[in-house]
UniProtKB/TrEMBL annotation:
Domain DH: from-to ranges: 184-368
Any one Gene Ontology BP term: filopodium assembly
Gene that encodes it: SPATA13
Gene3D superfamilies registered for this protein in UniProt: Dbl homology (DH) domain, Pleckstrin-homology domain (PH domain)/Phosphotyrosine-binding domain (PTB), SH3 Domains
Domain SH3: 91-150
Protein location: Cell projection, Ruffle membrane; Cytoplasm
Pfam families documented for this protein: RhoGEF, SH3_1, SOS1_NGEF_PH
Domain PH: 399-505
Protein name as annotated: Spermatogenesis associated 13
UniProt xrefs under SUPFAM superfamilies: DBL homology domain (DH-domain), PH domain-like, SH3-domain
CDD domains tied to this protein: PH_Collybistin_ASEF, RhoGEF, SH3_ASEF
Length: 596
């Protein structure tokens, strides 16, 4: 009885929403007029030619009313919660797929990894949903998942203990599944097309609704500020319009399951690399935007831009997050499409190759993002070293590979206890202070590009005429100079040998992938590190951690007050899958000067 009442309430609420749509056009017309008068945000009125027109000079228009009245076959997180809850109330199994990792230490929240499937049990709140994963029920952020296109298959797979009747039903279900595979492929194809069209509208709204208006107000924004906030999103818009046209050419409107879109991803594979720059720039954009939003005139200005462009009710930082989300969705969509594409299908090989290609694009973006995070840490580490000489470490290196203590044997046979840091291209030697053992003094470095690694057995070394244990040496290819090192344990030596091999491999991989950090990014990292330390050796600071979640009520209380939203810093930080944190930076933390 409660379910019937619930559905009736949903229908009443939907009727109100439908009636609201009738008034929305008039409402936006009034808001548009008010916004333009209050904040002097000018409307182009269609007379000014767009600077973002493709080579053919054409563009398919999707009006605000069309988007509002459309009935897409997919559901997006944070969208129609009423429809989702109605499905759940009707006994359907509604599952979502994790876009990114959700790491939490709170037992009252549901942790998961990118790609995990979560059963949605309640979606009344647009920001936090209640779900189940691996026999645990808890709250999780809705923006971290996307609902599966084909929920029917999940319902069929949710049967419990087998019996004769259930076996027969399962057999019939499998038969129906084979018959409906074309329909399931149709669903995925349509989702790809629909989300791509909506994404294009979001990009156009950003470029024409925000960027164009900002450029007209030179007193409020500098060129540098706009470059920081919006990055290369105009290039992304131009690229995505071309990509959508390629998709439209391959889309079979009459029989979508026959569409062959895999070639579109393969032909544009290199073009997706432009997302790397945007994703790397995004954290800085968030900081710049947050600083501006502290002033009321900027908050009012951006809101006026949104109303004038008749954009959906999402803040500007939400719009700027969409490209980061989009590049993460492609591999998931292609994986689901591949699942419902038979090997006999003409597009099977291209879809399979496209899936691998888009995974590689996402991995490349993740790697570049990780490199940028790494150079900030390396810069702060260098500032903490006393007596640094020569070029900055970032001039040639961008990643710490290994660190630890070794005994260096000089030509005269003297032993020197040193702490070594192996970066790509360089091995840096430091000495601990006798009294303050966490203070390091710079003692030199070796060019790993010029070195050859030689493993030594225990016993007397012929070149040095010394008896050594757990030793290896680096020999210069140009000067033939020999550098002899001894580890305390055999395990330590093995780690160093492996680290040296990893260093050569990573250098080669970076070269093949074209992995380069711009000079401006390196200079900015050093400048920020010097400002943080006021030019002095103050030690390495830990990376900022994600802000703690707001406290939740006990887990057994289903209907509780949710946090107002997912912290934006956490969303940005988790917009791409995280690697496991390295222990080397904890070593840095121990080996740097005392904090005040």
């Amino acid at each position: 009885m409660g379910i019937i009442i619930h559905i009736q309430q949903v229908k009443k609420q939907r009727k109100k929403l439908d009636q609201g749509l009738i008034l929305k056009k008039e409402k936006y017309r009034k808001e548009k007029k008010c916004a333009s008068l209050s904040f002097e945000v000018s409307s182009d009125g269609g007379t000014e030619p767009s600077a973002l027109v493709d080579d053919n000079g054409s563009e398919e228009d999707f009006s605000y009313e069309d988007l509002c009245q459309a009935s897409p076959r997919y559901l997006q997180p944070g969208g129609e919660q009423l429809a989702i809850n109605e499905l759940i109330s009707d006994g359907n199994v509604v599952c979502a797929e994790a876009l990114w990792d959700h790491v939490t230490m709170d037992d009252q929240e549901l942790g998961f990894k990118a790609g995990d499937v979560i059963q949605v049990l309640e979606a009344s709140n647009k920001d936090w949903w209640w779900g189940r994963s691996e026999d645990k029920e808890a709250w999780f952020p809705a923006s971290f998942v996307r609902l599966r296109v084909n929920q029917e298959e999940l319902s069929e797979n949710s049967s419990s203990t087998p019996s004769e009747e259930q076996d027969e039903e399962a057999s019939q279900s499998r038969h129906r599944h084979c018959e409906n595979k074309q329909q399931m492929r149709t669903n995925v194809i349509r989702e790809i097309m629909d989300t791509e069209r909506v994404y294009i509208k979001h990009l156009r709204d950003i470029c024409e609704g925000y960027i164009r208006q900002c450029r007209k107000h030179t007193g409020m924004f500098t060129i540098a500020q706009l470059a920081t906030i919006f990055g290369n999103i105009e290039d992304i818009y131009k690229f995505q319009r071309k990509f959508l046209k390629d998709l439209e050419k391959q889309y079979n409107k009459e029989e979508p399951h026959l569409s062959e879109i895999g070639s579109c991803f393969l032909q544009n594979q290199e073009g997706f690399a432009i997302y790397s720059e945007y994703c790397n720039n995004h954290p800085g954009a968030c900081l710049e935007l947050a600083n501006l939003m502290k002033q009321g005139k900027y908050r009012h200005f951006f809101e006026a831009c949104r109303l004038l462009q008749q954009m959906i009710d999402i803040a500007i930082d939400g719009f700027l997050l969409t490209p980061v989300q989009k590049i993460c969705k492609y591999p998931l969509q292609l994986a689901e499409l591949l699942k419902y594409t038979t090997q006999e299908h003409g597009d099977y090989s291209n879809i399979k190759a496209a899936y691998e290609a888009m995974k590689n694009v996402a991995c490349l973006i993740n790697e570049r993002k990780r490199k940028l995070e790494s150079i900030d840490k390396i810069a702060r580490w260098q500032v903490s070293i006393v007596g640094w000489e020569g070029l900055d470490i970032l001039d040639r290196s961008s990643e710490l590979i290994h660190s630890g203590e070794l005994t260096k044997i000089t030509k005269q046979g003297k032993s020197q206890q040193r702490t070594f840091f192996l970066f790509d291209h360089q091995l840096v030697s430091c000495k601990k202070d006798l009294l303050r053992r966490d203070m390091l003094y710079y003692k030199g470095r070796l060019d790993m590009d010029e070195m050859e690694l030689v493993d030594l057995g225990d016993g007397r070394d012929k070149d040095c005429n010394l008896s050594v244990k757990n030793a290896f040496k680096l020999v210069s290819r140009t000067t033939e100079e020999v550098y002899l090192f001894c580890a305390k344990k055999q395990e330590d030596k093995a780690r160093w040998l492996q680290a040296c091999a990893d260093e050569r491999r990573r250098v080669q991989e970076d070269k093949e992938m074209g992995m380069e950090i711009s000079e401006n990014q390196k200079k900015l990292a050093m400048l920020n590190a010097q400002k943080a330390g006021h030019g002095k050796s103050k030690g390495y600071n830990r990376c900022p951690v994600a802000p703690p979640h707001q406290g939740l009520h006990p887990i057994h209380q289903r209907h509780i007050t949710m946090p107002t939203s997912v912290p934006q810093q956490q969303v940005f930080g988790l917009a791409e899958p995280k690697r496991k944190s390295s222990l080397f930076w904890h070593t840095f933390n121990r080996l740097t000067p005392f904090r005040k």
